[in-house]
Amino acid sequence: MPIPLYGFLQGDTVGLLILADDGDTLAALARKLQAAASLRVAARDAVRVVYKDKTMDPTMTVAQAGLEALDRFDVQSG
Predict the structure, then answer these.
(1) What is the CATH number of the domain that holds 70?
(2) CA dihedral for 52, 66, 22, 25, sign (positive or negative)
(3) Which domain holds residue 68?
(4) Residues forming beta bridges with residue 61, ordered by sequence position
(5) What does the pLDDT look like over 4-18, one tens digit per residue?
(6) Which of 78, 62, 52 is closest to 24 using CA atoms?
(7) Rounded distance between C-alpha atoms, residue 21 and residue 51, angstroms
């Protein structure tokens, strides 16, 4: 079942609701957010996912990172 998460992309002016699956990697989550914000912010290859003020390993899954419904994550330039 999809997990709704609030994503904030560096350079964007609004947060976006992103649907993630437990098995999605954080790198895939960052790509989803960049795709959703692509009308306002150009996608970048080198980005990092920040959750609870910690830079996360992009190979971790959403479940491994401990993200739960309506949690906030940030995608910043790497």
Answers:
(1) 3.10.20.270
(2) positive
(3) 7-77
(4) 25
(5) 999 999 999 999 999
(6) 62
(7) 16
DSSP string, the chain: --EEEEEEETT-SS-EEEEE-TT-BHHHHHHHHHHHTTTTS---SSEEEEETTEEPPTTSBHHHHT--TT-EEEEEE-
Asked if residue 2 is part of any domain, the answer here is no
- What pLDDT was estimated at residue 78? 79
Residue 1 within a domain: no
Q: Where do runs of H (alpha helix) occur along the chain?
A: 26-36, 62-65
Inter-CA distances, 40 with 9, 10, 11, 72, Å? 10, 11, 8, 20
